[in-house]
Structure formats: C-alpha cells, structure tokens
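DM from R.C. (forwarded with permission)

"hey, sorry to bug you on a friday — could you get me a structure for this? deadline for the figure draft is monday and I only need the backbone to look sensible"
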Amino acid sequence: MTERKTIQIRYRPRDQFRAFHNRKQRWAALVCHRRAGKTVATLNDLIRGAVNECKPEGRYAFIYPFRTQAKDVVWKYLRRYSEPLWAKPPNESELRVDLVNGSMIRLYGADNPDALRGPYLDGVVLDEFADMKPEVWYEVVRPMLADRHGWATFIGTPKGRNEFWQLYQNAQNNPEWFHTMLKASESGILPAAELVIFARK
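My reply, with the result:
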C-alpha cells in the first residue's frame, strides 16, 4: 500500500467558512459581502478537491465573469496556494496549474463559454454568478459535470433578484445544497468603522 504524503499549504480558513469546507453536499451557494474572503475560501476548497478526490486526470475550474478578471484576481491566489502541489511550473497563457497527482486546475471567463466546451469537469467554482449569463451554467458547465458526478459552488454578492438570487432561494429548500449567507453587519469580518463607510450612499 502506498503511503500518502502530507503537504501543507498556506491557507488558514476563516471560521465563517469552516462549515462550507466541511459540507457533504454536491452543490453549494454562498452569498457573501465584499471582502469576506469568499474567492480565497472557494479557490482553496477547489484545490483541496483536486488533490483529495484522486480522480484519474481530474479537471477542476474556477470561472469568473471575464477572463481578464480571473487573471487579475484569482491567478495570483491559485499560484500562491497551490505551489507546494505543482507537478511543473504553472502555464500562464492557459491560466493552468498541473498538480502532482495528475489533476489540473484552470481559470476561465464566462465571457467566452466556447473555451469551456468539450472536456469534462470534476469540480467548479462560479464566482460572481450574478454577472454571468445563466446559459453558461445550464447549457455549458452543468453537462460537463454529469458523467463524473462533478460538483459546483456558486458565490457572489447580493445584486437584486437575479439568477443568483433565485438559485440561492432554491438552495435553501433543497437538502442536496449547502447554502450560507454572510452579511457584513453580522459576519464579524470587517471592523465596525468600515461598515459605516460601506453604508454611505
């Protein structure tokens, strides 16, 4: 029997995200205030899935509304937290990291859904889902998860009664979904003085 090696990464989850990391559900919806740390938390959850699920040639994706956003916001985090797990240096042109167990993590933009078509996915995070066309999920990403029983996490900030709002409403009444809402006034993440600034119009 092969002994599994323990590798530590630099991520330390905030208490507010521990229930998310410990979930058992296939689907998850997180409504979080600005600067709550939802991108870092869900990216590290994606990295953990890519390493621990040990699926043959595992494929995992983090999708932002625009590819330029994914590169500006998520790429530096992906490199930082996945570095101890690299099989080779990251591919910046493809925004791709290959891990020592054969899994791959890639960043995509929902602005080019055709770039997503074709391959399967074992796990995916859709960040700021409210800013994406719903077809990206229903017509492109969801079918990619089917044959390997992949999972998905949706995250975003409140922006009215849109597709993300409806998805979260449905998640609250479905035991197959993990859901949580972090309000700036309740989470304890931001100092009180900052909340006053956020409240200004």
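R.C.: lifesaver. The mean pLDDT is 90.
me: no worries. Residues 134 and 163 are 7 Å apart (CA to CA).
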